[in-house]
Every structure is written in structure tokens, then in C-alpha cells.
Specification:
Layout: E1 6-13, E2 19-26, E3 33-34, H1 36-50, E4 55-62, E5 71-72, H2 74-78, H3 83-102, E6 107-111, E7 114-116, H4 118-125, E8 128-132, E9 136-138, H5 155-159, H6 161-170, E10 173-175, H7 176-182, E11 187-189, H8 194-207, H9 210-223, H10 228-241, H11 247-256
Helix pairs in contact: 1-3, 3-4, 9-10
Length: 268
């Protein structure tokens, strides 16, 4: 790989049905930095994974106990010669984030160590974020002479404008507990408990209707860019479209006829 790194995909079929793609980023750097070649590989890998009709969820992580992603490779950025090359490079960062957002199923960020700059943007592009207690988060780009851009635009919706300004203007690095308090992540556990906590979430996703999950993610993407009245209308249409398949009726019948606690055979 010549130090460019690799993207590893482990597809696992689950007993509750469906398939989970475990995607791990293995950069040739201790901070797991994204270079141009690795970003191209990642976007391609995510696009291929997204085409799998049996896919139920994706888990994104750093490989081999590496940090989630420590940012884009500063050495590579320092060699950018002009604005056109800069635009092309940042377009690769956006392409990685967009590949995650365009994935039709929920993507869980499993975060250990650093999620900085492009790494935090990638985490923000995920649908759910779970972090180890040692995780650290930040957008320190202004400290190396550039603004935070592309999917940094998702941060106000997650943490509000004031906290976004703290991260982007001050370049602060915050810990997992503060990230949880801010709403930047949804759950924090000891690093040794990350896999178990991710499995809990996968079990919840496995209990959901696979078509309903895809419809819900697509609808939430629509909501991001719609005023309230149009977002409500889009939801009505999504609800109606659900009945083009038998999934609602089938799953509702199963719910109505589920075993009741304390019920006995032949009893009321």
C-alpha cells in the first residue's frame, strides 16, 4: 500500500436477518490520518457496500485499535500548490462524508481515540455515534491556517451554534464526557465495552423492519433541507409508501400476536 492505507470490510450475516458491514480504516499513521488515496478507497468501498440489498447496518471504526480518524494528512495538505488543488483535496473529504450519508442504512461510528478535523466530520456524517471514555474530539483547522469546512456544517444541528463556534474558532479538543453532554455522541462506554454496546444497537436495528429503516433514514435526510410543513408532508408520503409492501401488516400481526408475559397456553 506504500503507506497509503487500506479500507477493510467485514460482512457478517446476523441470526436476526440482514447483514452488517464492519468498515475499518487502517491508515499508515499512528493517528489514522486520511490521505487522498485512502479517501478515494473509502468512498468507493462505501458505495459498493451501499449497493448490497441485504445490508441492515454499517459500523465504522479505526482498524487495529487505531484512533477513529485523527484528521486529514497535514503533510499532504502542506504540499497543496494552489486553490484548484485545495478544492480537489477537500472534495475528497466531502466525498467520504457523503458516501456515509448516502448509505441507505444506519451507519454507527465506533469511536476510540481521536476524532479530529476530517475525522469528526466523518463521525458527524454517521447516523449514530458511540465513543470510548478515552475518545477526544476537535476541529483544530484554524490552528494550521485553514477553516473547518464541508461536513463541519452538520455540527450546529448536533450541538448548536455556540458549541460549534467553540470547536471551530477556538480549536478546542474535548473529551468523551463533554461530547456526550453536548450531544456530539449518543453514548460513552469504557473502551473495553465498545463492542458490546455496538452489539446492543445492532440488536435494536435487527428488530426493526429493514424497509422501514431505509425509509426512515431517507426521510430524515429529506427533513434536513425542508421547512416544517414540507417535512411533514414528506413524512405522510413515506408512511403511505410503506404499504406498497407487506412489511407493515406482517410486522404488526407479529406484534399483536406476540407471547404476553405471564400468559399460559389456553389462558386469557
Amino acid at each position: 500500500m506504500g503507506g497509503e492505507g487500506e479500507v477493510r470490510i467485514d460482512l457478517r450475516d446476523r441470526p436476526d436477518g440482514g447483514r452488517v458491514g464492519f468498515v475499518s480504516i487502517a491508515a499508515g499513521h499512528r493517528l489514522n490520518l486520511l490521505n487522498a488515496a485512502l479517501m478515494r478507497r473509502f468512498a468507493e468501498a462505501m458505495a459498493g457496500l451501499s449497493a448490497d440489498g441485504e445490508l441492515r447496518a454499517v459500523v465504522l471504526a479505526g482498524a487495529d485499535a487505531r484512533p477513529f480518524v485523527g484528521g486529514a494528512d497535514i503533510r499532504e495538505m502542506a504540499a497543496i500548490p494552489d486553490p484548484d488543488a485545495a478544492r480537489a483535496f477537500i472534495g475528497l473529504v466531502h466525498g467520504c462524508c457523503r458516501a456515509v450519508r448516502d448509505c441507505p442504512v444506519p451507519v454507527i461510528a465506533r469511536i476510540e481515540g481521536y476524532a479530529l478535523g476530517a475525522g469528526l466530520e466523518l463521525a458527524a456524517a454517521c447516523d449514530l455515534r458511540i465513543a470510548g471514555e478515552d475518545a477526544r474530539f476537535g476541529m483544530p483547522e484554524v490552528r494550521v491556517g485553514i477553516p473547518s469546512v464541508v461536513e463541519a456544517a452538520l455540527l450546529p444541528g448536533l450541538i448548536g451554534w455556540g458549541r460549534t463556534r467553540r470547536l471551530l474558532l477556538l480549536g478546542e479538543i474535548i473529551g468523551a464526557a463533554e461530547a456526550l453532554d453536548w450531544g456530539l455522541v449518543e453514548r460513552v462506554v469504557p473502551a473495553s465495552g465498545l463492542d458490546g454496546a455496538v452489539e446492543e444497537w445492532l440488536a435494536h436495528l435487527g428488530a426493526a423492519g429493514p424497509l422501514a429503516l431505509r425509509a426512515q433514514k431517507a426521510l430524515m435526510r429529506e427533513w434536513e433541507n425542508l421547512p416544517t410543513d414540507r417535512a411533514v408532508a414528506a413524512g405522510v408520503e413515506a408512511f403511505a409508501r410503506s404499504w406498497k409492501t407487506d412489511e407493515p401488516a406482517r410486522m404488526m400481526r407479529r406484534f399483536l400476536h406476540r407471547p404476553r408475559p405471564g400468559a399460559t397456553i389456553g389462558g386469557n
